[in-house]
Amino acid sequence: MSTIWLVVVITGVGTLALKAAGPVLLGGRPLPERFTGVVTLIGPALLAALVAIGTFADGQKLVLDARVLGVAAAAVAIRFRAPVLLVVILAATVTAGARAIAS
Amino acid sequence: MAGETGERGYRHGVTASLPLSVAVFGFGVSYGVLALSIGMSGVSAVVMSATTFAGSAQFAAASVLGAGGSAATAILAALMLNARYLPLGVTVAPWLEGGFWSRLLHAHLMVDESWAIASEGHGRWNPRVLLAAGIGLAIAWIAGTVVGVVFGTSLGDPANLGLDAAFPALFLALLAPQLRTEDRTTTIGDRRIPASPQAVAAVLGAAIALVLTPFTPAGVPIIAAGAACAIGLRRRP
After folding, report:
1. Mean pLDDT estimate for chain B
2. DSSP strand pairing (B124-125 vs B119-121)
3. Chain B: nearest CA to A21, how far in angstroms?
4. Is residue B135 over pLDDT 80?
5. What average pLDDT does the segment B93-104 reach?
6. Nearest to B199 by CA among B189, B190, B210, B188
7. d(CA A58, CA A53)
8. Quick one: which of A45, A81, B20, B170 could link to B228 by a disulfide (CB 3.0–4.6 Å)?
């Protein structure tokens, strides 16, 4: 099996297991309080890491390039509550435009 | 059982999820395009949208693979982002009826949006609203992915199009609503920090990832950033 299909299948099965653990296995029992505090913070921590890596990492190097401009434009659009598709298109367009001007 | 019963519950689920479905469709288009840009086939992207059915996790897996990360790191990053579905599933569990397959179907159709729409307050959830909203959102997400995959094949080199910047922009768009919280202070041990726990976790997560980038294989810094959520352990309710 290729790497991509391995990721597709295992992520799919794992996600369904996470979603169904409560409804199928636990019935109506609640989760310990300590645990929920941690789980709600995994999202912000990982998403911020993905933003940082996607903006500054080039392989194992940290660089400043045209992506910074695109992500900055996206941040402004998000500030004004623009729809996600618009945010994505704006980031790509600004980055591509900066590259075209630089080259 | 919840107040809204029968057809009214289903209808409410459909009407409440319609505006969100438009946004989810657009999100699906970007997933289809970006999945192709990192070398996924159109079929695998659509299959992942139908089975995993969780935007941020699918983008994270694609992003790790695109950066040259291994299958294991991509899977771990995606599943860590989906860990929130464990507590969400626990909240709806008491309100579901029926046997194993019915519960499994409701669980699969539970995403952030359908979960929020089905919430009736005071810890109650309406399973009919959850089902109807979930089906609407799933159709929008899968259809969007199909359109993105079809459209994406006619696009050129991803770097020329700035698609590499589209990934972090998208994660920022997903992060922003999670930072809009009521909490204003975080207590770690005896220290009080004038920012929400979500914001502190985000800053710590980004810092961990950037510091580790030069020293670890692709994908590992993102998983390690998850350690930032440990600040939630000492949080007082």
Report:
1. 88
2. antiparallel
3. 7
4. yes
5. 89
6. B188
7. 8
8. A45
